[in-house]
């Protein structure tokens, strides 16, 4: 497998393989020297055409722990948004000799397009409203780390489903593994084709909470507010935010997850952030581990033969 | 940590190398022979190290892990002390990771190796490249007093200056032969290439 573009490309088998490899890297990250020479001599270009701190840092940390060289490309977001100049940029970076390109772009499909131009492996670090596969993989790892089986696991994803690549990739990953996914949002924040996603839909978070094993909160994006999709952020918090009252309705064994960065007081009340069921920091730690597995599996498969013993 | 549902397939879809299957031709050692060889090796380990003080065993994933466990039990029963047994996957330290269609296993060294006598255990010693990688992997965990090597079968064809300290059996082979070692015995055979897309892989 040359690229990682979507969860669907991986399938359930591919997800299982990445989880298996990630267990090895979890151990590596706990060593006194959390670094192995697995990708020594490989060069990885990190091309972020859209702002990101945690995903970018997470990928870079993962690459460095595998001893790869990381080349940073900073796109001033205004200069590179036409198809042709994107191609020029990619070809220029590739001409310098890179083995993998990590792409974050605000246009859906940009990584697919780049993978057609580039010989290097392309890893999607989030494209538009389309997909964010490594986020889903770290979320799967985080749930799996708790010893939960996905078969029949009840996962509620709450928030702006229509504009969320995290939601789209997670629905794919969770349902592939056999979980029952419920999307919780006001009608204005659900995409028109929602019934094709293979998930249930609810507009009332309070009726969902008692029957939820994993509550996955999405970030309410302030930049959407000018589109008047919700009356106000305060109103959203009252109707869909995780307040202390709602947290009490969740089972003690439930997990509360969020891709970050959290808006305290909007999708989650400040008091709930410190709830023992919250796994946000585990998600961050696991992000490095899972991205190490992705980089290793994608980059270790090109080249010469391996002998037996 | 691995639940049943997410148990991994051994062969990876990420690999591009061809899949092979072992076809046995002759039995070299029976299960009893292997048990006797391990017992003798255990005595040699105790003799060489004047006991089992500060001695630990580390098996090389995957074939060396059951060997290390069996040697650990043999050592414990002879000297009546517990011997710590760990495992190491050397994949991340190899110089030839490309095309491996084998997913890495978790390295488990839940003890300090610094100032210990570390006995690396493997099923077959062939080119020596896995052992070289394992030396790098283990020394990342600390500074052992010594590192020694125990193998059930030494089949020759070394490509690096590595030699075993404890040997179950010297088995002259040709390069295109294949050796399968387990606690159930040692077989000499060959590898046959499976069709593309077949997911079988036994080593």
Notable features of this structure?
heterodimer, A: 309 residues, alpha/beta, Rossmann fold, 2 domains, five-stranded parallel sheet, four-stranded parallel sheet, 9 strands, globular, B: 203 residues, three-stranded antiparallel sheet, 8 strands, disordered N terminus
- Which residues of chain A sit in consecutive blocks of at least 5 with pLDDT less than 50? 303-309
Biggest interface reads: A-B, 42 and 48 residues
Residue share in helix of chain A: 25-40%
- Beta-strand segment tally of chain A: 9
How many helices of chain B? The count is 3
Parts with pLDDT < 50 across at least 5 consecutive residues of chain B: 1-10, 198-203
Report the CATH topology name of chain B.
Rossmann fold
How many domain regions of chain B? 1
Q: What's the arrangement of strands in the largest beta sheet of chain A? A: 7-6-5-8-9
How far apart are the termini of chain B? 24 Å
Q: Within the CATH hierarchy, at the fold level, what is the topology of the largest domain in chain A?
A: Rossmann fold
Q: What is the CATH top level name of the largest domain in chain A? A: Alpha Beta
Q: Give the radius of gyration of chain A.
A: 20 Å
Give the SSE string of chain B.
Answer: EHEHEEHEEEE
| CATH uppermost class of chain B | Alpha Beta
Biggest sheet details of chain B = 5 strands, parallel
Overall mean pLDDT of chain A stands at 92
Number of strands of chain B: 8
